[in-house]
What does this fold into?
Amino acid sequence: MRKGSKLCVILLCSFTALLGLSVLSACGDNTSQPKHIITFDYQGATSEIVETTRLVTQNTTIGILPSPTKAEFAFNGWFTEPNGEGIRILQTDKYEYSANITLYAHFVQNAYNVKFVDFDGTVLKEEDVEKGSGATAPEIALDARPGYTFDGWYDTEGTKVSGDTSYSFTVTADVTLTAKWVEKIEYTPDEYFTFELINDNTEYSIRAKNKNNLPKNLVLPQTYNGKPVREIYSGSYPNAAFQNPSIKSVIIPDGVTSIGACAFSDCSSLTSITIPDGVTSIGDGAFYNCNSLTAITIPDSITSIGEWAFTYCSSLTSITILGSITSIGDYSFYNCSSLTSITIPDSVTSIGSSAFSDCSSLTSITIPDSVTNIGEWTFYNCSSLTSVIFGEYSQLTSIGGWTFYNCSSLTSITIPDSVTSIGACAFSDCSSLTSITILGSIASIGDYSFYNCSSLTSITIPSSVTSIGYGAFYGCSSLTTITIPDSVTSIGYEVFRNCNSLMSVTIHAAIPPTLGDNIFYKTHSALKIYVPPTSVDTYKSAQFWSSYASKIFPI
It folds into this structure.
């Protein structure tokens, strides 16, 4: 190579090197920049945490940030201070901090849409409300629709939620409420009603003059001849006050305190009824066989619901009991086959026999602490019932016979320590029941109490029990082991019959309990019965126990 060419190459290389240094100087050499740690504080997020820290280089783009979720909240971004304070950091931002930092997730409470709509679809009011906050219906003048009477606010499923024009409630979800009006039929009271003087001729009782000739939308008068209408006539089936299958809606006026027996029985087209605050009692069979009624609100003035009050209300899906009711009568909600939920207030002390029998859609029930007695057959054949919850300070003393018979979806139950007796067949045919916990002072387990609980694998019998009734665990084919405390002095016949998985029974009583016949008939062939070591010979020679001598062993 010639000398001049070599010089050109050297100069060109030097120029290129200088140019590279200039570019690095202008752009920054990332490899020499300090690195810092971002710590992510998720502030109670309920989604899976996938990244808790990130190593970043100063003056470089932060990059895609985590997007956590939190139940019932919306994610609002990452901030340099908690509660959405400080600077909001975006994924396109450069990390310009000279030290480690913590970023805090910020969530905002979900807002729900609340809409009030008139009968013709006109939106009367619409707003977005945070969960847990209140919403109030717009004021509606009662004469806003001539020829009609305001009946109430209805949800999208057609359930009446309130008859109050200024209804207020706590928002927990999106909701649309529609104002429903019923046609006002102009008539004189004497045209359709018969009035009888009561209470020293100071007030009236009301009933139909001709129950086959009544308006479909029935509005009862508040007064007659200057005196208040106080009661709806208490009749007997089939001679009821307003027994008419064509009635669609009823508005009971303020001032009425009593809805008499069978008052609206067999009103099979009745879909809506307004019961005012002030009514104190609903009589026996008052709404018997009102099979189009979908919802009802029982005001807090009512103290008792009579027997058969809502029997065969097969379209009734929800019941709201607001207040001070103390008793729910026998068969009150019998065969309300569409009923999915009911809230029993803590004023109730007794639930009558068969009160909820054949409520085949009922999924859960909470028995408040105040209830001391549950009658027989109360939840019989509630085949969808999966959960029964007793209060922490339950005062319940007895569970009646057949109370939960054939609750075939019930999987477990804890019986509170206040209960002293379980009636016959109380849990018979609860075929999904896998475990039972009896907490306390129960003295006896009734005959066939857990008959054919074919999924039952365990039960704890407390030391307060002195007797186990006939066939108490008959057909519990999944039960493998059971321990009987030393307090038990008698065991009825066939108690463990057909418990074909039962392999171990431990009995702590030194003196053999009196025993019925066929107690271990068709149990597992490898069954072993364990008793106190000093009592083995006593058991082997005792009546009926001697039949199982080869299976008796010391504990």
